[in-house]
Design goal:
By secondary structure, the chain is mostly beta strands. 6% of the residues lie in helices and 35% in strands. A hairpin with a 2-residue loop joins strand 9 and strand 10. The longest helix is centred in the N-terminal third of the chain and has 12 residues.
């Protein structure tokens, strides 16, 4: 009887080892190697290289705080609160008086925000057709299914998964490059560009460049 009681006390006194997985509820969290990308994401291939530990550098602890220096005075997480990517309108201010545009926004997508949005007003020319080129560069190694770039115009959404309205998409040196024509006209265009990544364990630095030629 004493032997049985002693055995019960020994079992009760043993500490239980609890393993906590703090990598979030998505595949590819911190310390894990994400599944290989099938090419269906925005870029069609994984951006950057895998670090020496076998993980993509864009994956972070979902509970790690992140401060975006570009959002100190307000967020740009939605198209309605987009930040200006250029200080004024672009295109032909009068007639065919065209001035080329080359503007870049460089920032950070935090793991606690769904997107960064930028706005630009375009004034079409009278007879000249302009070419707009949007280039997205991600500066951290990240699977291409963890981010996306969208182009909003007139309330409609364009991206590389559904390239309508004359939009073309290519991948050049790992960058997502979107191009479209701006035909002559007399209606001012309001564009918004969205860098999207609605994952609680993904953070990366990027550059978004818009050219008008």
């Amino acid at each position: 009887m004493r032997t049985m009681m002693l055995a019960a006390l020994l079992v009760a006194g043993c500490a239980q080892k609890i393993v906590v997985n703090d990598g979030g509820d998505r595949d590819g969290g911190p310390g894990n190697t994400p599944p290989s990308d099938s090419g269906t994401g925005a870029g069609g291939e994984d951006a950057g290289s895998v670090d020496s530990g076998g993980s993509f550098s864009c994956f972070v602890d979902p509970f790690d705080p992140c401060d975006d220096p570009d959002e100190v005075n307000g967020t740009n997480n939605e198209w309605s609160s987009a930040s200006a990517i250029h200080s004024s309108s672009a295109g032909c201010q009068t007639g065919d008086d065209f001035e080329p545009l080359d503007a870049t926004a460089s920032s950070l997508i935090c793991n606690v925000e769904p997107a960064d949005f930028y706005r630009l007003t375009i004034v079409p020319c009278d007879t000249r057709t302009m070419i707009a080129t949007l280039r997205f560069t991600i500066h951290d190694a990240c699977p291409s299914d963890r981010y996306n770039v969208a182009w909003f115009s007139g309330g409609g959404r364009l991206d590389c998964n559904d390239p309508q309205d004359g939009l073309t998409c290519t991948v050049e040196d790992g960058d997502i490059v979107m191009r479209r024509r701006v035909n002559p006209g007399n209606s001012i265009l309001s564009w918004q560009f969205g860098v999207e990544s609605d994952f609680e364990d993904v953070r990366f630095e990027y550059s978004l460049n818009i050219k008008l030629e």
